[in-house]
Amino acid sequence: MRARLRAGEKLSGALVRMPCEEVVEMLAVAGLDFVLLDCEHGPADVGAVRHHIALADAHGVPVLVRIGEGEHHLAQRVLDQGAHGIVAPHIESAEEAAALVRAVRYPPRGERGFATYPRAGRFGTRTADEHRAAADAATFVLVMLESPGAIARAGEIVGVDGVDGWLVGTADLGAARGPQDPSVAELLEQVCADPAVAGSLRADLAAGAEAATAAFAGGADLVVYNVAHLMMELFRTLPHP
User: Fold this and answer.
1) What is the pTM of this model?
2) Smallest Cα–Cα separation from 13: which of 39, 43, 49, 38?
3) 179-197 pLDDT, tens per residue?
4) Which domains does the chain show, CATH number per domain?
5) Beta partners for 123?
């Protein structure tokens, strides 16, 4: 996934909040490029995440995991289970971004505990050098900018070595802004036009096809469909006698 994005491909995926392996399989069969499992607001634990990752892997679909704020230990565990990357919410500074990178990278670049015997190391069948090289090449790191302060410091945050891209959490951004702050739309426009983030991959959340088309046209490299939103929008429009 990381290599495809760096080669200039545009990818679309889906945010899955509820533990449901069949939904992951349906998304894979539908042809999406990746799945984002939500462990920040969703109830899934590491065991459930592992099942989802294994099923997605059987279909050749990479999985990203959104951890909770500062949950570096969870990031390490899901990477050991074969996740291809981490989406980290509420990154407010370059220092926080650097701490995240250290948590998901093996020494000497980081501090992640090293083991080849979990699922990501093919249960010990990879050599230490093979496992380290595979992790270094594949691990994708996406930071979420979710406050006016983070938007103002976006260039410093995404400029940290090891951060691949960024995603604005518009719901949290709206909740965090004060009366004196620009609107969410203005803050989005500000960060998208910031030359300091130009070399970093941009991800957008999308509520449907029209929003996704607009996101790609506006410069997004990844679009993430919100499965819960799409399902609720569909069911709310169906007849209810």
Assistant:
1) 0.95
2) 38
3) 999 999 999 999 999 999 9
4) 2-237 (3.20.20.60)
5) none
